[in-house]
Amino acid sequence: MPRETSMARSAWGAGVILPALGELKLTEITPLHIESFVRVKSAANSKLHPKTVLNMLRLVQGIFSVAVDNDLLERSPVRRKHRPAVPRSEKTAWTPEQVRAILDEIPLEHRPVFVCLALTGLRAGELLALKWNHVSIEAGELRVEQSLWNRQIVAPKTESSRASIWFDDVLRRALSELRKRSHHTDPEDFIFCKTDGSPLNPDVLRRDVLYPALHRLRIPQSKGASGFHAFRHTAGSVIEERTGRLKLAQKLLRHSTVSTTADTYTHTSRESERGAAVALERAYFGDLFPVVPDSGTGNKNQAVN
User: Does the pLDDT at position 111 exceed 90?
Assistant: First the structure.
C-alpha cells in the first residue's frame, strides 16, 4: 500500500487529530482501532464534548469513504456502534404570546426584521441576505436563494433550503411600509440594511436589540439558545401544533427530511403552505392583523451598525 494511505500522513491532517491510530495504514485499521480511538477521545481527561468526538469520527469516516470510493479498501472500519452518545440539548421555543410580546417590545426601526424572522422561520443568514428581487409582496412570496455568512454571500445551507416561503397580511404590510421608507429599494438592494446599503450585522442585532427586549420582558435566556434560531424553533412547533401536520412544519423550515423536523423542532400544496403561513400569523397576532407601526425602518439613520 502506498505511503499516502497512512492515516498519520493523510492530506486531511489526520496525524494531528488521530494520534491514537498512529502510523497505521488504512488497510491495517480495524473496527477495534476505531473503537479505541473513540474511547480515548471520549475519556474524561480529554475534556472533549461528545459532539466534538462525533465530528472527529465523521471526519475519519469521510476519509475511509474516499478510500472505498477509490477502491483502496473494500469496506470502512467505522461502524454505527462507534458513534458516541451526544446529549440532546433542549431547544428554546417560546409561546405565541411570548413571540407577540417580543415583537411589540422590539424598537420600531428594527421591528420589520423580527416580524419577518418570526413569520418565516428563516435562518439569520437567509433573512439578512434577502434582496428586494427575492420578494413578491403582492403575491406574498419570498425566495431563499442565498445566505449571509461572515459578511459574505454564500449558498443556502442545503439544497432543500432553496425554496419559496409564503406569507400573509402582517408581513406583507410590514414589508410594504419598509419599502416606502427605505432609501435602498432597487431589485439588488438588501431589504434589511444599514444606511450605506450593506446588510445588518446579526451579532449586533442580537446583542443590542433582541437580548435587551428579552431582558425587559423577563423572558429567560438560555445560553446559545435564545437568539434568532429560537424564532425558527418556535415557528416549527407552532405550525405542527396548530395544523397537526408535521409535513407543513418541515416545508416551512425547509428540512430535507421530516425526521429532522420531528427530532429537533417540535416538543404539499400551495394552498396548504399558505394555510401554514396564516396559522402562524394568527398564532402570534390573532385575527386583528395590525399594521406594523410605520415610523422607522431597519435601514434608516437609527439602524444597527
Answer: yes
What is the reported pLDDT for 9? 41
Task: Determine whether domain 3-82 maps to CATH 3.50.50.60.
Answer: no
Quick check: 252 pLDDT over 80? Answer: no
d(CA 199, CA 214): 23
**Of 139, 144, 135, nearest in space to 112 by CA:** 135
With b for 16 or more beta-carbon neighbours within 10 A and e for fewer, the 104-129 pattern comes to ebbeebbbbbbbbbbbbbbbbbbbbb
Average confidence score pLDDT of the chain = 78
User: Would residue 67 be called left, alpha or beta, if left means φ above 0 and alpha means ψ between -120 and 50 degrees?
Assistant: alpha
Give the global pTM.
0.59
Q: Select from 137, 133, 138 the least CA-distant residue to 146.
A: 133
Query: How far, in Å, CA of 261 to CA of 239, rounded?
Result: 11
CATH topology of domain 96-285: hpI Integrase; Chain A (1.10.443)
Taking the domains of the chain in order of start, what are their residue ranges?
Answer: 3-82, 96-285
Cell of 166: 409564503
CA atoms of 52 and 42, how far apart (whole Å):
9
